[in-house]
Design brief:
Layout: E1 17-23, E2 26-32, H1 34-53, H2 63-67, H3 74-77, E3 84-86, E4 91-92, H4 95-102, H5 107-117, E5 119-120, H6 124-145, E6 146-147, H7 157-166, H8 177-188, E7 195-196, E8 198-205, H9 210-220, E9 222-228, E10 234-241, H10 245-256, E11 261-266
Antiparallel strand pairs: 1-2, 1-5, 3-4, 6-7, 8-10, 8-11, 9-10
Helix pairs in contact: 6-8, 9-10
């Protein structure tokens, strides 16, 4: 524990970091363990990403979910549940300000708000780890959804990565990878020709491969039309990100030993 005297000019953080949140023109700060807060933020982010993948209407976590989580222990993350207006100077937040902004003076609930939406000063190692992870996610999304408009083919992962490096593109550690894709694309268009694009493809699978082939198609594309032929073959029209077209064709060719039939309808 660190002491919190208000008569000293500044408080030694003693290896902790400050988590803060600003709302309604007021600032609130609390003291956190950097490693435990980092792990908690990763758990929160993973849960949000899972909810988005599952198509749930509400991807955000609530404060109640944080308080009742069996994976996140606020007692271990926060040095205490004292809420400050200016922690380094030992100036505590007033009950009035906490009531106005959070409708409570409960430090645990305010800690939940800070953990979900607050800003934190991470260590350099944590920043590098997070940037690397976000960068990989962004490049993967772009490589699967974008093409070179000059030859209608996807850009290799390494080419996109090099363009991001050459363009000195800034990766925001606090934003989801999906939210940054458009900004990254704008930054690298002057370096490589690239655009996001969907393609439509007609597919015909021989009857012997329809079960496994259907699953492969459904994982990578949206099935817009489908029809079962009298010989047991499956014919469909699908839409998918341009960057996934070769992966889909390769997987179907491998499954059917080259007997799949494909035709591009729109690109």
């Amino acid at each position: 524990m660190i002491d919190r005297p208000t008569d000293r000019a500044r408080i030694d953080l003693g290896g902790y970091i400050i988590g803060k949140i600003e709302k309604s023109g007021r600032r609130f700060e609390m003291l956190l363990d950097p490693e435990k807060a980092w792990e908690a933020k990763k758990l929160i982010r993973e849960e949000i990403e899972n909810r988005l993948k599952e198509g749930k209407d509400k991807s955000r976590l609530s404060v109640d979910e944080i308080l009742n989580s069996n994976k996140i222990d606020l007692e271990l993350i926060f040095e205490s549940f004292t809420v400050f207006e200016d922690l380094r100077r030992g100036k505590k937040a007033t009950d009035g300000d906490m009531e106005v902004v959070f409708d409570t003076t409960d430090g645990r609930r305010i800690a939940g708000h800070i953990l979900i939406d607050g800003e934190m000063h991470w260590t350099q190692t944590q920043r590098e780890e997070e940037r690397s992870k976000k960068l990989k996610q962004i490049i993967t999304i772009i490589s699967k959804n974008a093409i070179n408009p000059q030859n209608k083919k996807p850009h290799p992962y390494q080419r996109i990565e090099k363009a991001i490096e050459e363009g000195n593109v800034k990766i925001d550690l606090m934003r989801n990878a999906e939210e940054q894709v458009d900004d990254v694309l704008k930054s690298i268009r002057s370096i490589i020709p690239i655009r996001m694009e969907q393609v439509e493809m007609a597919i015909k699978l021989p009857s012997a491969f329809t079960a496994k082939g259907y699953n492969i198609v459904a994982q990578l594309a949206q099935i817009k039309k489908e029809e079962w032929q009298s010989d047991g073959s499956w014919v469909s029209v699908v839409s998918l990100p341009a960057g996934l077209q070769m992966e889909l064709i390769d997987k179907l060719n491998k499954l059917t030993h080259g007997r799949v039939q494909t035709k591009f309808l729109k690109s």
